[in-house]
Amino acid sequence: MKKNIICIGNFDKWSKFYDTIYHGYKEDIEFYKKEAKKVNGKVLEIACGTGRIYLELLKEGIDAYGVDISQGMLNVLKEKTKKLGLKPKVYRADCKNFELKHKFSLIIFPFSSFLINLTTDDQIKTLKNIKEHLLPNGKFILDFFLPNPEFIVKNYGKEIKKIIKTKECKFVSINKSYFIDEPDQIVEFTGTLIKDSNVIWRDKIRIAFIYKREFELLLRSVGFKNWKVYGDSYYKTLKSSEQRMFWVVQ
How many domains does the chain have? Predict the structure, then answer.
Protein backbone atom coordinates (compact mmCIF):
# COMPACT_ATOMS: atom_id res chain seq x y z
CA MET A 1 0.00 0.00 0.00
CA LYS A 2 2.85 2.39 0.77
CA LYS A 3 4.00 2.51 -2.83
CA ASN A 4 0.55 3.61 -3.98
CA ILE A 5 0.64 7.12 -2.48
CA ILE A 6 0.08 9.32 -5.47
CA CYS A 7 -1.82 12.54 -4.83
CA ILE A 8 -0.27 15.26 -2.71
CA GLY A 9 -1.13 18.70 -1.44
CA ASN A 10 1.87 20.45 -2.98
CA PHE A 11 3.16 18.71 -6.10
CA ASP A 12 5.91 21.28 -6.68
CA LYS A 13 7.26 20.76 -3.17
CA TRP A 14 7.02 17.00 -3.60
CA SER A 15 9.00 17.11 -6.85
CA LYS A 16 12.23 17.63 -4.89
CA PHE A 17 11.81 14.28 -3.13
CA TYR A 18 9.77 12.15 -5.54
CA ASP A 19 12.79 10.41 -7.04
CA THR A 20 14.18 9.67 -3.60
CA ILE A 21 10.92 8.05 -2.48
CA TYR A 22 10.31 6.00 -5.64
CA HIS A 23 13.80 5.52 -7.07
CA GLY A 24 13.60 1.76 -6.60
CA TYR A 25 10.19 1.18 -8.18
CA LYS A 26 10.63 -0.18 -11.70
CA GLU A 27 8.07 -2.98 -11.89
CA ASP A 28 5.85 -1.25 -14.47
CA ILE A 29 8.47 0.24 -16.79
CA GLU A 30 8.92 -2.76 -19.10
CA PHE A 31 5.14 -3.19 -19.37
CA TYR A 32 4.59 0.37 -20.61
CA LYS A 33 7.63 0.23 -22.90
CA LYS A 34 6.32 -2.98 -24.45
CA GLU A 35 2.85 -1.53 -24.99
CA ALA A 36 4.26 1.70 -26.47
CA LYS A 37 6.36 -0.27 -28.95
CA LYS A 38 3.24 -2.08 -30.20
CA VAL A 39 1.68 1.07 -31.63
CA ASN A 40 2.60 3.11 -34.68
CA GLY A 41 2.12 6.72 -33.72
CA LYS A 42 2.30 9.18 -30.90
CA VAL A 43 2.14 8.20 -27.24
CA LEU A 44 0.93 10.43 -24.40
CA GLU A 45 1.72 9.92 -20.73
CA ILE A 46 -0.62 11.68 -18.29
CA ALA A 47 0.96 12.58 -14.95
CA CYS A 48 4.44 12.05 -16.37
CA GLY A 49 5.96 13.59 -13.23
CA THR A 50 9.76 13.60 -13.08
CA GLY A 51 9.97 11.16 -15.99
CA ARG A 52 10.26 7.78 -14.29
CA ILE A 53 8.49 6.12 -17.24
CA TYR A 54 8.47 8.96 -19.78
CA LEU A 55 12.28 9.09 -20.07
CA GLU A 56 12.39 5.35 -20.72
CA LEU A 57 10.02 5.85 -23.67
CA LEU A 58 12.19 8.63 -25.09
CA LYS A 59 15.28 6.46 -24.79
CA GLU A 60 13.54 3.88 -26.98
CA GLY A 61 12.93 6.48 -29.69
CA ILE A 62 9.18 6.54 -29.07
CA ASP A 63 7.37 9.72 -30.12
CA ALA A 64 6.25 10.46 -26.57
CA TYR A 65 4.40 13.46 -25.17
CA GLY A 66 3.62 14.17 -21.54
CA VAL A 67 1.37 16.30 -19.35
CA ASP A 68 1.56 16.94 -15.63
CA ILE A 69 -0.18 19.35 -13.29
CA SER A 70 3.08 20.29 -11.54
CA GLN A 71 5.61 22.62 -13.13
CA GLY A 72 8.08 21.54 -10.45
CA MET A 73 7.82 17.92 -11.58
CA LEU A 74 8.27 18.93 -15.22
CA ASN A 75 11.32 21.05 -14.35
CA VAL A 76 12.99 18.01 -12.81
CA LEU A 77 12.11 15.96 -15.90
CA LYS A 78 13.58 18.59 -18.23
CA GLU A 79 16.83 18.72 -16.27
CA LYS A 80 17.15 14.97 -16.68
CA THR A 81 16.56 15.15 -20.43
CA LYS A 82 19.30 17.78 -20.79
CA LYS A 83 21.81 15.41 -19.22
CA LEU A 84 20.65 12.59 -21.49
CA GLY A 85 20.60 14.72 -24.64
CA LEU A 86 16.89 14.11 -25.18
CA LYS A 87 14.17 16.55 -26.24
CA PRO A 88 10.95 16.24 -24.22
CA LYS A 89 7.52 17.31 -25.42
CA VAL A 90 5.81 17.93 -22.10
CA TYR A 91 3.21 20.45 -20.97
CA ARG A 92 1.78 21.65 -17.70
CA ALA A 93 -1.90 20.68 -17.73
CA ASP A 94 -4.69 19.07 -15.72
CA CYS A 95 -5.82 15.57 -16.68
CA LYS A 96 -9.46 16.71 -16.71
CA ASN A 97 -9.14 19.44 -19.31
CA PHE A 98 -5.79 19.38 -21.15
CA GLU A 99 -6.00 20.30 -24.82
CA LEU A 100 -3.32 19.10 -27.22
CA LYS A 101 -3.20 19.53 -30.98
CA HIS A 102 -2.48 15.87 -31.56
CA LYS A 103 -4.47 12.70 -31.16
CA PHE A 104 -2.64 9.65 -29.91
CA SER A 105 -2.31 5.98 -30.73
CA LEU A 106 -1.70 5.26 -27.06
CA ILE A 107 -2.41 7.18 -23.85
CA ILE A 108 -1.01 5.89 -20.58
CA PHE A 109 -1.85 6.97 -17.04
CA PRO A 110 0.50 4.95 -14.78
CA PHE A 111 1.07 4.27 -11.10
CA SER A 112 -2.38 4.93 -9.60
CA SER A 113 -2.33 8.56 -10.73
CA PHE A 114 -5.94 8.35 -11.95
CA LEU A 115 -6.99 8.13 -8.29
CA ILE A 116 -6.21 11.82 -7.76
CA ASN A 117 -9.66 12.39 -9.27
CA LEU A 118 -11.64 12.48 -6.03
CA THR A 119 -15.18 12.85 -7.39
CA THR A 120 -17.21 10.89 -9.91
CA ASP A 121 -17.58 14.07 -11.99
CA ASP A 122 -13.80 14.51 -12.17
CA GLN A 123 -13.29 10.84 -13.02
CA ILE A 124 -15.77 11.12 -15.90
CA LYS A 125 -14.29 14.41 -17.14
CA THR A 126 -10.84 12.85 -17.22
CA LEU A 127 -12.00 9.76 -19.09
CA LYS A 128 -13.93 11.85 -21.62
CA ASN A 129 -10.88 14.03 -22.22
CA ILE A 130 -8.72 10.96 -22.74
CA LYS A 131 -11.25 9.51 -25.19
CA GLU A 132 -11.28 12.77 -27.16
CA HIS A 133 -7.49 12.64 -27.53
CA LEU A 134 -7.39 9.05 -28.81
CA LEU A 135 -7.17 8.14 -32.48
CA PRO A 136 -9.75 5.67 -33.81
CA ASN A 137 -8.71 2.24 -32.52
CA GLY A 138 -6.28 3.90 -30.14
CA LYS A 139 -5.49 2.39 -26.74
CA PHE A 140 -5.72 3.79 -23.22
CA ILE A 141 -3.76 1.99 -20.49
CA LEU A 142 -3.61 2.70 -16.77
CA ASP A 143 -2.94 0.88 -13.53
CA PHE A 144 -3.97 1.28 -9.94
CA PHE A 145 -4.29 -0.91 -6.87
CA LEU A 146 -7.34 -2.94 -5.92
CA PRO A 147 -8.46 -1.81 -2.44
CA ASN A 148 -7.88 -4.46 0.19
CA PRO A 149 -10.49 -4.49 3.02
CA GLU A 150 -8.25 -6.62 5.25
CA PHE A 151 -5.39 -4.14 4.90
CA ILE A 152 -7.76 -1.27 5.66
CA VAL A 153 -8.99 -2.88 8.89
CA LYS A 154 -5.50 -3.84 10.02
CA ASN A 155 -3.40 -0.82 9.11
CA TYR A 156 -5.44 2.35 8.74
CA GLY A 157 -4.62 4.94 11.34
CA LYS A 158 -1.26 3.32 12.07
CA GLU A 159 2.16 4.64 11.10
CA ILE A 160 4.04 2.52 8.58
CA LYS A 161 7.80 3.08 8.42
CA LYS A 162 10.08 2.24 5.54
CA ILE A 163 13.84 2.62 5.17
CA ILE A 164 14.96 4.09 1.83
CA LYS A 165 18.62 3.68 0.94
CA THR A 166 20.23 5.64 -1.87
CA LYS A 167 23.87 5.95 -2.94
CA GLU A 168 24.20 9.15 -0.95
CA CYS A 169 22.40 8.43 2.32
CA LYS A 170 19.55 6.73 4.15
CA PHE A 171 16.03 8.09 4.58
CA VAL A 172 13.07 7.05 6.71
CA SER A 173 9.64 7.26 5.12
CA ILE A 174 6.61 7.31 7.43
CA ASN A 175 3.06 7.00 6.09
CA LYS A 176 -0.22 7.12 7.97
CA SER A 177 -3.60 6.67 6.29
CA TYR A 178 -7.25 7.08 7.24
CA PHE A 179 -10.63 7.77 5.64
CA ILE A 180 -11.71 11.39 5.55
CA ASP A 181 -14.88 10.52 3.62
CA GLU A 182 -15.85 6.89 4.00
CA PRO A 183 -19.03 6.92 1.83
CA ASP A 184 -17.11 8.45 -1.09
CA GLN A 185 -14.05 6.23 -0.42
CA ILE A 186 -11.63 9.14 -0.07
CA VAL A 187 -8.50 8.39 1.91
CA GLU A 188 -5.94 10.85 3.22
CA PHE A 189 -2.32 9.86 3.71
CA THR A 190 0.18 11.80 5.78
CA GLY A 191 3.61 11.30 4.28
CA THR A 192 6.85 12.19 6.05
CA LEU A 193 10.46 11.89 4.86
CA ILE A 194 13.27 12.02 7.42
CA LYS A 195 16.99 12.49 6.77
CA ASP A 196 19.55 12.46 9.61
CA SER A 197 16.72 12.69 12.17
CA ASN A 198 15.37 15.85 10.48
CA VAL A 199 12.00 16.06 8.74
CA ILE A 200 12.75 17.27 5.20
CA TRP A 201 9.28 16.77 3.74
CA ARG A 202 5.76 16.30 5.08
CA ASP A 203 2.44 16.66 3.32
CA LYS A 204 -1.10 15.33 3.14
CA ILE A 205 -2.13 13.15 0.26
CA ARG A 206 -5.65 12.28 -0.91
CA ILE A 207 -6.87 9.63 -3.30
CA ALA A 208 -10.23 8.00 -4.04
CA PHE A 209 -10.48 4.23 -3.91
CA ILE A 210 -11.98 2.62 -7.01
CA TYR A 211 -12.98 -1.04 -7.21
CA LYS A 212 -12.96 -3.11 -10.41
CA ARG A 213 -16.71 -3.01 -11.07
CA GLU A 214 -16.84 0.73 -10.38
CA PHE A 215 -14.18 1.41 -12.98
CA GLU A 216 -15.99 -0.76 -15.51
CA LEU A 217 -19.09 1.40 -14.99
CA LEU A 218 -17.01 4.56 -15.42
CA LEU A 219 -15.59 3.25 -18.70
CA ARG A 220 -19.06 2.36 -19.98
CA SER A 221 -20.44 5.75 -18.97
CA VAL A 222 -18.09 7.59 -21.36
CA GLY A 223 -18.49 5.19 -24.25
CA PHE A 224 -15.59 2.76 -23.96
CA LYS A 225 -16.68 -0.74 -24.92
CA ASN A 226 -13.65 -3.03 -25.03
CA TRP A 227 -11.07 -3.60 -22.33
CA LYS A 228 -9.05 -6.20 -20.50
CA VAL A 229 -7.84 -6.00 -16.92
CA TYR A 230 -4.74 -7.88 -15.82
CA GLY A 231 -3.23 -8.65 -12.44
CA ASP A 232 0.16 -6.92 -12.28
CA SER A 233 2.36 -5.87 -15.19
CA TYR A 234 2.94 -9.42 -16.42
CA TYR A 235 -0.50 -9.90 -18.00
CA LYS A 236 -1.54 -12.33 -15.27
CA THR A 237 -5.15 -13.10 -14.38
CA LEU A 238 -6.46 -10.70 -11.73
CA LYS A 239 -7.28 -12.80 -8.70
CA SER A 240 -6.76 -10.74 -5.55
CA SER A 241 -5.98 -7.36 -4.03
CA GLU A 242 -2.36 -8.46 -3.72
CA GLN A 243 -2.11 -7.52 -7.41
CA ARG A 244 -2.30 -4.17 -9.14
CA MET A 245 -4.97 -3.79 -11.82
CA PHE A 246 -3.58 -3.01 -15.28
CA TRP A 247 -6.34 -1.89 -17.62
CA VAL A 248 -5.92 -2.04 -21.41
CA VAL A 249 -8.82 -0.10 -22.94
CA GLN A 250 -9.49 0.00 -26.68
Answer: 2
Same structural domain, 227 and 176: no
Which pLDDT score, from 0 to 100, does residue 9 have?
53
- Residues 91 and 215 reside in one and the same domain: yes
Check residue 185 and give left, alpha or beta (phi > 0: left; psi -120 to 50: alpha): left
pLDDT digits (tens, 9 = 90+) for 109-131: 999 999 999 999 999 999 999 99
How many CA atoms are closer than 13 Å to the CA of 124, on its beta-carbon side? 10
Q: What is the DSSP string of 147-175?
A: P-HHHHHHHTTSEEEEEEE-SS-EEEEEE
Residues 120 and 37 in one domain: yes
Interval 203-226: pLDDT, tens: 888 999 999 999 999 999 999 999
Please give the Cα distance from 194 to 108 (Å, whole number): 32
| pLDDT interval class at 3 (50, 70, 90) | very low
Give the CATH number for residue 244.
3.40.50.150
Tell me the C-alpha distance between 36 and 66, whole Å.
13
Phi, psi of 223, rounded to the nearest 5 degrees: 100, 0
- Do 61 and 169 reside in the same domain of the chain? no
Taking CB atoms within 8 Å and a gap of at least 24, the contacts of 67-70 are 67/91, 67/92, 67/93, 67/95, 67/98, 67/100, 68/11, 68/92, 68/93, 69/11, 69/93, 69/94, 69/95, 70/11, 70/12, 70/14, 70/15
